[in-house]
Amino acid sequence: MLKPYKKGVLLQVHVQPRAKKEEIAGLYGEALKIRLTAPPVEGKANEALRKFLARVLKIPKSAVKIVSGTSSRQKGVYLEGLDRETACKRLGLK
């Protein structure tokens, strides 16, 4: 789910758009399931995902980059400047 990648980590995410609230909903296979209130149109869910992860991880939104799956629920998200241990702790993972 979290792998070293360039100068940060790569997080595998499964997004559930149009949810009632924004939250981390646990694991979905090998990915972290994240519920978002934004609809999956015109990149709104992708933008909401970047904002949500930046807030939870306490990093700038510019450090959160979607590197794969921009039009899919399964996404690869690059978190620049974070190590695996810090990302796990801030996401509430072991």
Summarize the helices and strands and which ones pair or pack.
Layout (H helix, E strand, L loop, with lengths): L1 E4 L2 E9 L6 E6 L2 E5 L8 H14 L6 E5 L5 E7 L3 H8 L3
Parallel strand pairs: 2-4
Antiparallel strand pairs: 1-2, 2-6, 3-4, 5-6
- What is the domain total for the residues? 1
- CATH class reads Alpha Beta
Q: So, the CATH homologous superfamily?
A: YggU-like
CATH architecture: 2-Layer Sandwich
Structural class: alpha+beta
Order of helices and strands: EEEEHEEH
The parts where pLDDT drops under 50 for at least 5 residues are: none
CATH topology: Conserved Hypothetical Protein Mth637, Chain: A
The chain-level mean pLDDT equals 96
Kindly state the percentage of residues in helix: 10-25%
Distance between the termini: 12 Å
Main sheet characteristics: 6 strands, mixed
Put simply, the count of helices is 2
User: How large a portion of the residues is in β-strands, by DSSP E?
Assistant: 35-45%
How many strands in all? 6
Shape: globular
Radius of gyration: 12 Å
Structure write-up:
- The chain has 94 residues and is an alpha+beta fold.
- Strands 1, 2, 3, 4, 5 and 6 form a six-stranded mixed beta sheet that branches.
- The protein has helices at residues 44-57, 84-91; strands at 2-5, 8-16, 23-28, 31-35, 64-68, 74-80.
- A hairpin with a 2-residue loop joins β1 and β2.
- The chain has two helices and six strands; from the N terminus they run ββββαββα.
- It has a single domain (2-83), classed as 2-Layer Sandwich (Conserved Hypothetical Protein Mth637, Chain: A), CATH 3.30.1200.10.
- The N and C termini lie close together (12 Å).
- The longest helix has 14 residues, at 44-57.
